[in-house]
């Protein structure tokens, strides 16, 4: 572990790991360490819960809990899709066991509808038993979009994606930047015949992106361009090169990559 970190998070359950994941997504330049007292992550509640992706039936409409539940479900399912984590929507039945419980069930349906929960239906006993043969009651609220997922797998994916920039959209950004930047920079160099960007530079930039992630790779390119700009101006001013002299940019990208890896961590 590093001697010094920018942020330390205590507890490697899903809350700590999700916090670390989002922090690193927002600020890839900082170092974050999660401190866990157990020998493995998600060893407590997060690894032993019921695995339900709640649709947001119960919370007061307009409340922060209702909003976070709805937004959290969408984000969780998107994250799971991007990282190949299996999840399903087997749905959920909330059952009124007797006539006296019907008004509460109907009030729950109104509340869930106000929360924007999709596909809700009030079911009679027959349809209820078709969906779940072991269910018994007089009426049910059916929430088809309630899901299930293994939260331990989710927590471990947060841990890996925080430490490794080679997953998700960062990789796409890295490759896109590696292809687009040399192509764009090649254009202004045409009139001067200098500043050649070759396929080697593209490969180098892809490599940097794979190692450090897209946003850091962009940082290293900006740094490399600044250094190369200063060096070129100095060389031109000293008349050591002319406007049409061939200048390879690869070494500057290597300096940028070293800067981002060694100094920014
Ligand atoms: C029975 C049950 C069923 C549930 N079912 C669902 C469900 O279906 N769907 C749902 O969304 N939510 C469900 N929940 C809620 C959900 O599991 C919790 O909200 C969530 O797991 C909390 O995550 P956490 O990271 O805060 O806690 P934890 O997963 O408990 O993680 C806390 C971590 O901190 C570590 N720690 C504690 N003290 C220290 C210390 N001093 N130093 C270092 N490390 C420390 C612990 O070892 C632990 O790993 C359920 C909860 C329970 C109890």
How would you describe the overall organization of this protein?
The protein has 265 residues and is mainly alpha-helical. The chain has three domains: 1-49 and 150-163, no CATH class; 55-145, 2-Layer Sandwich (D-Amino Acid Oxidase, Chain A, domain 2); 165-263, no CATH class. It is built from nine helices and eight strands. The strands form three sheets. The protein has a three-stranded antiparallel β-sheet with strand order 3-8-4. A three-stranded antiparallel β-sheet has the order 5-7-6. Helix 1 (14-26) links the parallel strand 1 and strand 2 (32-35). Helix 6 runs antiparallel to helix 7 and helix 7 (199-212) packs parallel to helix 9 (250-263). It is elongated and about 95 Å long. 26% of the residues are buried.
Characteristic terms for this protein:
265 residues; mainly alpha; D-Amino Acid Oxidase, Chain A, domain 2; 3-stranded antiparallel β-sheet; 8 strands; 52% helix; elongated; binds flavin-adenine dinucleotide
Write the layout of secondary structure elements.
Elements: E1 7-10, H1 14-26, E2 32-35, E3 52-53, H2 64-82, E4 87-88, E5 92-96, H3 102-114, E6 121-123, H4 125-131, E7 139-143, E8 147-149, H5 151-163, H6 169-189, H7 199-212, H8 214-237, H9 250-263
Parallel strand pairs: 1-2
Antiparallel strand pairs: 3-8, 4-8, 5-7, 6-7
Helix pairs in contact: 1-5, 6-7, 6-8, 7-8, 7-9, 8-9
The protein binds flavin-adenine dinucleotide.
């Amino acid at each position: 572990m590093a001697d010094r970190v920018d942020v330390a998070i205590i507890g490697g359950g899903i809350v700590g790991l999700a916090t670390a994941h989002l922090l690193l997504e927002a600020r890839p330049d900082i170092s974050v360490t999660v401190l866990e007292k157990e020998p493995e992550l998600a060893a407590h509640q997060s690894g032993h819960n019921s695995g339900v992706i709640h649709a947001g039936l119960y919370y007061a409409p307009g409340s922060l809990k209702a909003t976070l539940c709805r937004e959290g479900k969408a984000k969780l399912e998107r994250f799971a899709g991007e990282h190949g984590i299996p999840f399903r929507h087997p749905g959920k039945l909330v059952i009124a066991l007797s006539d006296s419980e019907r008004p509460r069930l109907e009030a729950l349906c109104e509340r869930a509808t106000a929360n924007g929960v999709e596909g809700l239906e009030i079911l009679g006993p027959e349809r209820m038993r078709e969906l779940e043969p072991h269910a018994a009651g007089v009426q049910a609220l059916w929430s088809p979009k309630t899901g299930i997922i293994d939260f331990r797998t989710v927590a471990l994916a947060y841990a890996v994606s925080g430490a490794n920039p080679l997953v998700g959209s960062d990789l796409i950004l890295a490759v896109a930047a590696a292809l687009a930047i040399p192509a764009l920079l090649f254009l202004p160099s045409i009139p001067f015949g200098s500043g050649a960007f070759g396929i080697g530079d593209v490969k180098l930039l892809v490599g940097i992106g794979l190692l450090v992630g897209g946003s850091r790779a962009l940082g290293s390119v900006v740094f490399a361009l600044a250094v190369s700009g200063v060096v070129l101006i100095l060389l031109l001013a000293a008349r050591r090169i002319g406007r049409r002299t061939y200048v390879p940019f690869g070494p500057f990208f290597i300096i940028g990559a070293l800067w981002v890896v060694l100094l920014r961590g």
